[in-house]
Amino acid sequence: MTAVSEQEPEAAGPAPAATAVAGQAGEEDLRALFGQSTAVFASLTGPAHVVETANPAFLAVIGEERARIGVPVAELAPELIDQGFMELLDQVYRTGEPYTGRDARVVLGTGARAREMFFDFTYEPRRDAEGNVIGIRLIGVETTQVKHAQRLMVEHRALVEQIARQQPLAEVLEGMARCIEELAPDEVLVSVLLADPDGRHLRHGAAPSLPEFYNQAIDGIATGEGVGSCGTAAHRRRQVIVTDIATDPFWDDFRHLAEPAGLAACWSTPILARDGSLLGTFAMYHRTPRAPQEADLALARVFTDTAALAIERHHIEQAKLAAEASARSALEELAKAVRAEQRLRAEAEQRASAAAELAAQMRVAAAVQAPAAPPEHCQLGGTSGCEAAAEIKVADSWGVSAWGCTAHVEEALITVRSAFIANEELGGLAAYLNR
C-alpha cells in the first residue's frame, strides 16, 4: 500500500499559512480514512518518532495494555530497536526518502507473550510548509495469515512427501502435530489418537506438547457418547467442539486430568477412511475456553485429511508386510515338510535295503540247509531231548536252524522271539538249543 504524500509548494503556490492548513487537513483526512481500517496507520513526529496519532489497528498491534499517544515508538515497543525498525525510521527521517518493506517479520512482546507477525509497510516522510521533514507517516498491512498459509502449505507438502516415502507413521504424525502447533496464530496443542481395528478404543498416536501423564491416561479410552471430545467424535463420526472443558458434561470423567494439564477447550475431528471406517481422531486443545473460527476449522479439515492419508497408507503397508510374512512362513513350513519327507524316504529306503539284505542272508542260510535231510526226532528238546517227530524247521538270522515238533517250535518262537533282533550277546537259536 502506498501512502499519500504532500508535495512541496511551488513558487506561485498558496501562502505558507494556507499550505500548513492544507497539510493539517490532509492529516485529518488520513486519520479519517484509516481510523477504522484493518490497515495499520500511525503519524509520528520529530526525530524521536513520537506517536502523534494512530488508528485502533496500530494500537492493537502494539498491544492495547501498553499502547498510548504522545510516546516515542521505541518506548512503546523497545523490542523493535534490535529488529532494525527504528534504524529505518531514522533513515527515512534523515534522508527524506520513503521506505517500503514486504513481508517484514516483526516480533512484538517478549517471553510467553511474544507474537510473530508479518507486514507490508511504508514509511513516508511528513514535511512542513518549507519542505522540511517533521515526522513520518506509517502505513502497513498485516500479511501474517498469508505468510502462515504459505508456510502451512510448504509443511503440508513436506508431510505428503513423507507419506509417499513411507516414513514411519509415528514420525509423520508427530511432525504434523508440531507443524500445526508452531504455525497456528494462537497457542494450540495437537493430539492424534489411533483407532483399534474394532473401532472401540483409541490409542496414543502423537501429542508432542501434552503432558506425559495425560497421554498415558487417555491411551486406550473407549469410543462412545459423552466420552470426552475424542471418544464422542469417534462414536458420532463427526466433529465435536467443546469450548469450555470446565463446564461441558462430556468431560465429567476426564476433568480431573484436564485441569492439571492446563487444558480448557478441545475440538476433536474424527479421522475417517475412504470407506467411512474409523481411523482415529485429530484434536486441537487450548489453554483458555475458546470457540473455533473458520480458519481453525479449515486447518482441522486439511490436516485431518492428511492424517487419514498417512494412517491408511500405514495400514496398507502393514497388511502387505503381514502377507509377505505369512507367505515366508508358509514357504518355510513347506520346506520343512519337504525335508521331513526326504528324511522319511531315505529312512524307508535304508529299511528296505536292510530288509532285502536280511532276506538274502536267510535265503542263503536256507539254501545251505536245504540239502540236509530232516532228522527223525525233534531237535528242540534241549539236553533232556524230545522223542516227538520233527515236523517244522526254524532258523535265525545267524544261519542256525533246527527241526522240532509242533510244541517245541511254538515254544522256540515265543522264547527266541525274532531272529531279526537276536545278537551275539543274547545268542540266537543256537543258545536256545544248548539251554
Automatic annotation (TrEMBL):
Signal peptide range:
none
Top-level division of the source organism's lineage: Bacteria
| Stretches of the chain forming a coiled coil according to its record | 327-357
Database matches in Pfam families: GAF_2, PAS_4
The chain positions of domain GAF read: 164-321
InterPro entries, sorted? GAF, GAF-like_dom_sf, PAS-like_dom_sf, PAS_4
What SUPFAM superfamilies does the database record attribute to this sequence? GAF domain-like (SSF55781), PYP-like sensor domain (PAS domain) (SSF55785)
Keywords of this protein's UniProt record, alphabetized?
A: Coiled coil
Q: Which protein, by its recorded name, is this?
A: GAF domain-containing protein
Organism for this UniProt entry = Actinomadura macrotermitis
